[in-house]
Specification:
Strand content: under 5%
Helix content: over 70%
Largest sheet: none
Number of strands: 0
Distance between the termini: 44 Å
Order of helices and strands: HHHH
Shape: flat
Structural class: mainly alpha
Radius of gyration: 24 Å
Length: 93
């Protein structure tokens, strides 16, 4: 029977060997510092995304186009939930 790989081992396949070896050799303090650096990078990326005028215009356009579909789905889901509640009250579900 083959040994199961740990979650960390599976995750390591996503990265190059240099990153993995350098990260594994870091102290706890260095790991925390790396985490903070990556968190700052993610925040910066999110801020840039929020400020992207083209992306925001496309999001608005997509929301407008999806509106009819979303409204229809919600109406149907509400009807289904009502039927489930009615069936529960009657003891059939």
């Amino acid at each position: 029977m083959a040994a199961t790989k740990s979650k960390r081992e599976k995750m390591e396949k996503k990265f190059d060997d240099t990153f993995v070896s350098e990260t594994r050799s870091k102290t706890e303090s260095q790991l925390k510092e790396s985490l903070l650096g990556y968190m700052k990078e993610v925040k910066k990326n999110e801020d840039l995304k929020k400020e992207d005028a083209t992306l925001n215009a496309l999001k608005e356009q997509l929301a407008d186009l999806n509106g009819g579909y979303s409204d229809t789905k919600k109406a149907i889901t509400d009807k289904m939930n009502y039927i489930f509640e009615l069936m529960k009250e009657r003891g059939t579900f």
